[in-house]
Design brief:
Elements lengths: L10 H12 L5 E2 L10 E3 L4 E6 L18 H24 L3 E6 L10 H13 L4 E4 L2
Parallel strand pairs: 3-4, 4-5
Antiparallel strand pairs: 1-2, 2-3
Length: about 140
């Protein structure tokens, strides 16, 4: 079952890429040389964007629930994902990169302001702020 779960080119990621591209931003995808292999890399702005699924990264939102089967396995796996996320973010910031995190819950569901998310990202990219987190 898990082999069918994609780590790249997910629907939320494609949506963010489309929104950024429409606003004139050009970027690279899944750069392996950077810590955490960011989903979107904007070298011109020295910025990276991670598009996180709420389940896989253990986000504290209504989209995330701990699985009832094999709870020890899932707690360890999601805990490891969170630790890897933190390490990648610290390393990127130390190397002078700006880091953005977009959570799935900000994009999924009725009544979500997708254009607002795009505007927030564009404003962040044009600013000097080093971090942004877009969530529900």
């Amino acid at each position: 079952m898990m082999s069918g779960i994609r780590g790249r080119n997910t629907k939320p990621e494609i949506l963010i890429r489309s929104l950024l591209h429409r606003q004139g931003f050009r970027f690279r995808l899944h750069v392996r040389d950077l810590p955490g292999k960011p989903d979107i890399v904007l070298p011109r702005y020295r910025a990276v964007i991670f598009v996180h699924g709420c389940f896989w990264h253990g986000h504290d939102c209504p989209l995330f629930k701990w699985p009832k089967t094999r709870p020890d396995f899932w707690r360890e796996k999601i805990g490891r994902n969170r630790a890897n996320d933190d390490l990648a973010m610290e390393t990127l910031l130390a190397d002078g990169w700006r880091v953005g995190t977009i959570w799935e819950c900000a994009l999924r569901g009725a009544g979500k302001d997708i254009e607002g998310v795009a505007k927030d990202l564009a404003d962040w990219l044009r600013s000097n702020t080093s971090l942004i987190e877009v969530k529900k």
